Amino acid sequence: GWSRMATSSAMLDRNAAPPSTFELHVTGQVESGSFAGDDNLYCNILVHHGIDWQVVAGMEEGVTQVASISPGSDSRVVWNFPLELTFKSTNVYGWPQIVLTVHGTDFLNRDVIRGYGSVHIPVVPGAHEVEVPMFRPLSSSLLQQFIGWIHATPAEYIDPKRPALPTGREVTRVRTSGTVVLKLNVVVRNMKQLGYSIPVSSNLKVYQ
User: Fold this and answer.
1) pTM, two decimal places
2) Which site among 43, 47, 104, 143 is 20 to 30 Å from 20 CA-CA?
3) Looking at per-residue confidence, does 97 or 154 come out higher?
């Protein structure tokens, strides 16, 4: 009868092999940016992760709309660009990062980069507000900086994922250019079954 079938199913569940991968699910938005009064900005979003990670749902890159500072606001531009990604992996090495590049225009309406930044997706499940510091690389000399300003070709990275890479940044001269605010909701699945300790879920404000 049904009761015997239910008992058999429970036994199968207990004897089932443990999962071989865990999942990380993140939703939220790239909310806003503040860049010392710079206006008409948009943001490129990329995802960087280790070789053992795979994106199984969602897009690994996106571009916000161009946003302007609202009259009477606190010099922020608001994008509210949605994020939704699901990853799976066999280990935590190479935990995913969100890589941001903010673009604006100069006095001749030419596209220029206003800042780079990156942040690891929080490891703690729950809701998070993350403030990402943004920076710009500097040319190696004042002359190169001036030439770059004249030709609208300031120093920039060839690889847009450079801010997320573990090597090379320490030899690059940079200056702070602004901040970007992310609001993220994080869920993990099957990590305990693979032997990882899961931090307690919490609502956090994180300054990277």
Assistant:
1) 0.77
2) 47
3) 97
